[in-house]
Amino acid sequence: MATVDEVRGVLAFSRVPRELSDELLDDAPELWLRGESPDVIAGDVALCHPPLATKELRVWCAPALIAGALRVSVLAYDRPGLLAATTGALAHAGLSVIQAAAMTWPSRHWALQRALVADAKARSTRPVERDLLCAQLRAAVRDGPMGDARFAPTGPVQVEATPAPGGRHVLRVLAPDRPGLLWAISAWLERSNCNVLVARATPAGLQADDSFLVDGQPNADELWAYLSDVAPAATRR
Predict the structure, then answer these.
(1) 4-143 — its CATH code?
(2) What is the DSSP letter of 150?
(3) Using an 8 Å Cβ cutoff, are 173 and 159 in contact?
(4) CA 94, CA 212: separation in Å to the nearest integer?
(5) C-beta separation of 160 from 214 below 8 A
(6) Of 55, 154, 160, 189, which has the fewest Cβ atoms less than 10 A away?
(7) Domain 158-228 - what CATH class?
(8) How far apart are CA 169 and CA 211, in angstroms?
(9) What are the φ and ψ backbone dihedral angles of 22, each rounded to 5 degrees?
(10) Which among 179, 62, 43, 57 is positioned nearest to 120, based on CA atoms?
């Protein structure tokens, strides 16, 4: 896991003002730092400079070190359903999320989302396609999602909701990794009036291990039933 001091060390060689980096890294949650290198977290911070202008939206796409994969970042003013909008756009583009993270700064009303994605059909990621993806993401964030993404519920699924300070909850989901899973969870959270403050989605073999810090009261049993495609009253195994 990256440490704040390591991230500051990387940013010392960047154009990001020390005052801004200190503000954004202050009390950085472990969920954002977990499993990432200092360079990746420093890249998140660097995307925030210069500070967002009113109604500004930033989308960045670049080839990743994994062949055929893209690293995608979105910085926007936070609103309910933002994660569902971006993950829905990725799903509609036929891209599978390999790994993802999200971070918010409530004092600035900013939300940053980062994802490592790959085309399940192994199509090229030449620049014109990256330009198209950036345009699709901008449209989704600005105008809302393009409708429900394709998602097939299946088990076994485990969902845990743990209370956190400030009336928040940490939600952890273990489920079979499949296209549209991150969109399905984030869209369900939006419908449940839960705003995602920090998130991390990681692969665990054939499973996905996704965690969310949310402002709201998520019902773990209802999310489990939705992802498992069973009646909400069914007994958890």
Answers:
(1) 3.30.70.260
(2) P
(3) yes
(4) 24
(5) no
(6) 55
(7) alpha beta
(8) 10
(9) -65, -40
(10) 179
Instruction: Extract the runs of DSSP E, i.e. beta strands, from 145-186.
Output: 158-164, 168-176
User: Cis bond leading into 156, ω under 30°?
Assistant: yes
Q: Tokens 């900013």 — which residue? A: 110
Domains 4-143 and 158-228 alike in fold: yes
The proportion of the chain whose per-residue pLDDT surpasses 70, expressed as a percent, equals 92
* Ordered strands of the 110-119 beta sheet: 58-63, 69-77, 110-119, 95-105, 195-204, 207-215, 168-176, 158-164
Cβ atoms of 49 and 16 within 8 Å: the answer is: yes
Comparing CA positions, the residue from 101, 140, 97 lying closest to residue 120 is: 97
In sequence order, the 6+-apart residues with CB closer than 8 A to the CB of 39 are: 10
163-195: per-residue pLDDT in tens?
999 999 999 999 999 889 999 999 999 999 999
Do residues 74 and 52 touch, judged by C-beta distance below 8 A?
no
Q: Break the chain into its structural domains and give their ranges.
A: 4-143, 158-228
Each residue of 13-64: pLDDT tens digit? 999 999 999 999 999 999 999 999 999 999 999 999 999 999 999 999 998 8
